[in-house]
Amino acid sequence: MEAKRRELVPLALLWGAGIATLVILIVILVYILANGLPVISWQFLTGEPALWGQTGGGIYSTIVATLAVTGISLLVAAPLSVGGAIYLNEYTKETPLRKVIRQAAEILAGIPSIIVGLFGFLFFVIYLAPITGGWSMISGGLTLAFMVLPISLRTSEEALKTVPTELREGSLGIGATRWQSITTVVLPTALPGIITGLILGVGRAVGETAAILLTAGGSLNLIQSLRDPGRPMTLNIYDVLTEYRDTTTAYGTAAVLIIAILAITLITDVLMNNYTKKLKGL
Amino acid sequence: MICIKPSREVRSLRRSATRDIRERTVALLLLLCGISSVCAIFLIITFIFAEGLPFLIQAGPSFLISSVWRPTDSFSAGLWGIFPIIVGSLIVTLGAVAIGTPLGVACAVFLAEIAPAPVRRVLVPSVNALAGVPSVVYGFFGLLVIVPWIRGQFGGFGTSVFAAWLILFIMILPTIISISTDSIRAVPREYKEGSLAMGATRWQTIRSVLVPAASSGIIASVILGMGRAIGETMAVLMVAGNSVTIPDSIFAPTSTLTAQIALEMGYATGAHREALFAMGIVLFAFIMILTGFANLASRRRITY
Amino acid sequence: MKKILPIVLVSMLVALAVFGAGCTSSTNSTKLQLAGSTTVQPHAEALAKAFQANNSSVQVFVQGGGSSAGVTAVGTGTADIGMSSANLSKSQLSQYPNLKAVPIAVDGIAIVVNPQNTINNLTLSQTRDIFTGNVTNWKQVGGSDAKINVVNREEGSGTRDGIQKIVLKGGNFSSGGITQSSTGAVRSYVAGDPNAIGYISFAEVDNSVKALSIDGVAPTYATIANGTYPIQRDLLFVTNGDPSGNAKAFIDFTLSPAGQAILKADKEVSISDASAAKVTTSAAK
Which of A81, A257, B5, B226 would you call most buried, defined as having the most Cβ atoms within 10 angstroms of its Cβ? Predict the structure, then answer.
């Protein structure tokens, strides 16, 4: 009885912790959105950026740059991560090779973005300059792929693991080859989980700055080709804020970014919920 | 869901040799995909070490111990001491972890044991949303809200160790919360039920049974959060002040390995650039040590 | 339904790839890349816009990064024109012996403080003491009793280099200051901190900060042009070898009356005005 009363204080603290976390998120989101949403207009999203030192102008070229680097990173990371996950889960037993690959992916996930950026600068901007065009969307996108790869590898593997073995065994039992089973049975079942993982990777790519800082250039011009330098939205926030304190554009860009990422988070959560419900229904 | 295609069956039985080759090719391609992560690490390590290791060797231990950082593009003309920068990284990281761990673990306990389902349905996506906010937006918030507040309340530059602590702890909260929640949930129900059956209250059960049982997972989450904090670049670059000095108070500015590299990389040439890569190696070493500890801690976790 | 989604995704990616590949019709001859000093950058962007209006086949990209980065970019071929607010150093010239620098304007460096600061003038030696750390409190130079918050530019900045040469006479900056990576960042910091002091291009001074007089001379277009304001340097466009092609066209445009008018409107002293004013002062002596 006495203990139950003494319990009130710790319980209140725990509730406080949960509420505090929620409040932190709300404060940050409200601050950015309250200042940024009014800035967003059709003209803001589609207009050309203002000249250096002047406020106003749009962020169209930054949106295109973000799409370009994200698209390139996904193009490279998706097949590699899904393929790798299929290999890890479907083709091998617990051999040392599997452990090495998994460990490598873990380490890769933990490498700070600035170091991946340093590598990207050396490898893509300088060493492979004739192919990538130096500072360019290609250099930025390929560098980002290094960061998306471990995330989608991990989530794809998880998705493949949740496919019940009975499905695989049933398919093999009627004479299908391993690859046939994978393409007709396993992959379709795991696809929502895999796509969720890829979307998470996209979220990471969209929000990345340090690696982009060193590899994508920084020019505000609209890219004409993927070998041109560009300035994705995250870099734009940093540049615009620290170079000439154009807080209006910075708020607007930040608001667009946050809405995009919140949408990605929401879609991922909904997809995952539907997916786990469907699996339970099996 | 299983599509039985008998015609393909019959066809493939007849051409088993080509099917074998196809299967083997596919297996090989998938193996290459898998190896891509290993290749990636190999490439990164090779290039970074190739650029930075010669400098590190040439500079010797004074690189890590000396406090004077005056880079130029020729090795002999410059002074290469990154001790204050290392100290800055450590202070900023440890402080963020010290603030973030109690709040994060408490929130994890709340989510795993106390929160009713509707609260959980709001809080879990919120934690995921916190994780998704880009670091530059956190830095933005820090620069425009936290730095002026600190300057007004406590004096000094405003861009300071304290500002970095405040922003970083928020950034590592989601890591600590999500992994700790999973760890606490993974404790077998029998532990909790046994404790409650013996008459312990909910809090006593949490404090004496659940948290200790989940401790290795919780510790792993904290160490991963530490790794995230020490590797964070943009937010720190915007709020810590970038002063290559050992801070004499938490309201003094400092620099971190990540921020210094990002700040100077754009224009560094010659020996200066190699020095920045050497700093990258030092950073990489710190993180490897941390993740090594995390692996040890999680391996000791009792698998259920 | 599940089969449609991957097809949609793949086709989107393919479309992006095709867009990228098909658009690689832009060859190097129509792309002009400038990189370097953040002091020069705003003016270069204004010049670029005017230039592109008359030369629609050329696309001018302007990037920051600091004076050193610009010179390196031009030396390694990553950029066509480097923007520098500092004269080429010996080591830069020995690394890239073919560099050619063309002065395009004269820029004054203003020492700025917060508008609330009571100080209006400093001697050159007082300024030196503040930035080397010999003087740490405003009351030592006639102001209120408060610690001086020094704001520096990063090492690769031509503006910082100018201060080091002219004000510090080669001495070292104290380590107690904070570092901001651009003119704009320094200005906004100083605007927000009553005890701050920093240095920015005169062209970037606005109402948010106060520019100090040095040895009694206030920085104005006239005093920079005739040399009486001591802290000034040439802004340069740097090329690897003699300028040719689009680079030459752009530099010629910058030096033309139209280009110089753009710079003058931005409070950068045009080359002709500067040399004319200096002739007058020396003749008057």
Answer: A81
Instruction: Pull the structure tokens for residue A149.
Output: 């790869």
Of B242, B266, B268, the CB nearest to C179: B242
| Whole-number Å distance between alpha carbons of B272 and C34 | 23
**Partner-chain contact B264 C67, CB within 8 Å:** no
Residues A117 and A164 placed together within one structural domain of the fold? yes
- Domain check: are A33 and A68 in the same one? no
What the block records as the tokens of A236 is 């734009």
Domain assignment of residue A238, yes or no = no
C23 lies within 8 A of chain A by CB: yes
Mutate to test the interface with B, among A111, A160, A264 (most CBs of B within 10 A): A111
Q: pTM above the 0.90 mark?
A: no
* Among the listed residues C72, C62, C63, C42, the one whose alpha carbon sits nearest the alpha carbon of residue C202: C42
> Nearest residue of C to residue A188 by CA position?
C2
The tens digit of pLDDT for each residue in C8-59 reads 555 555 555 545 443 443 444 477 889 888 888 888 988 988 998 888 888 8
Residue at A136 is within a domain: yes
The answer to whether residue A149 is domain-embedded is yes
Flag whether residue A190 sits within 8 Å of chain B, measured between CB atoms. no
Separation in Å, CA A218 to CA A69, A236, B153, C29: 13, 8, 36, 20
Residue A160 and residue A83 share a domain: yes
Report the alpha-carbon distance of residue C152 to residue C149 in Å, rounded. 10
Say how many Å lie between the first and final Cα of chain B, rounded: 32
In a domain, B157, yes or no: yes
Residues 59 to 98 of B: which have CB under 8 A from any A CB?
Answer: none
Give the model confidence (pLDDT) of B104-160 as tens digits.
Answer: 999 999 999 888 999 998 998 889 888 889 999 999 999 989 999 999 899 888 899
**The total number of structural domains that make up chain A:** 2
Give the end-to-end CA distance of chain C in Å, rounded to a whole number: 88
More confident residue, C23 or B65: B65
Number of inter-chain CB pairs under 8 A, A vs C: 89
Q: What percent of chain B has a predicted confidence (pLDDT) above 90?
A: 48
- Of A175, A247, A257, Cβ closest to residue B134: A257
Tell me, yes or no, whether B227 lies in a domain: yes
pLDDT of residue C29: 46
Shared-domain flag, residues A217 and A263: yes
| pLDDT for residue B260 is more than 80 | yes
pLDDT at B302: 46
Does residue B233 have a pLDDT over 50?
yes
Query: Does some domain include residue A222?
Result: yes
pLDDT less than 70: residues of chain A: 1-4, 51-56, 92, 244-245, 279-282
Which residues form the domain of B125?
A: 84-253+289-299
What is the CATH classification number for the domain harbouring B97? 1.10.3720.10
Question: How does the average pLDDT of chain B come out, rounded?
Answer: 87
CATH of the domain at A174: 1.10.3720.10
Question: Which residues in chain C land under pLDDT 70?
Answer: 1-29, 279-285
Determine, for residues B134 and A208 on separate chains, whether the beta-carbon distance falls below 8 Å.
Answer: yes
Same domain, A155 and A95: yes
What pLDDT is stored for residue A267 in this prediction? 82
CA separation for the pair A113, B261 (Å, rounded):
11
- Please give the tally of structural domains in chain B: 1
Q: How many CB atoms lie within 10 A of CB B149?
A: 14
pLDDT greater at residue C53 or residue B89: B89
Same domain, A33 and A69: no
Report the percentage of chain C scoring pLDDT > 90.
35
Q: Out of A3, A108, A242, whose CB is closest to B41? A: A108
Residues B32-60: pLDDT tens digits? 998 898 999 999 999 999 999 999 999 99
**CA–CA separation, B272 vs C154, rounded Å?**
13
Dihedral of CA A172/A177/A178/A182: which sign? negative
Q: Which domain holds residue A150?
A: 61-231+257-280
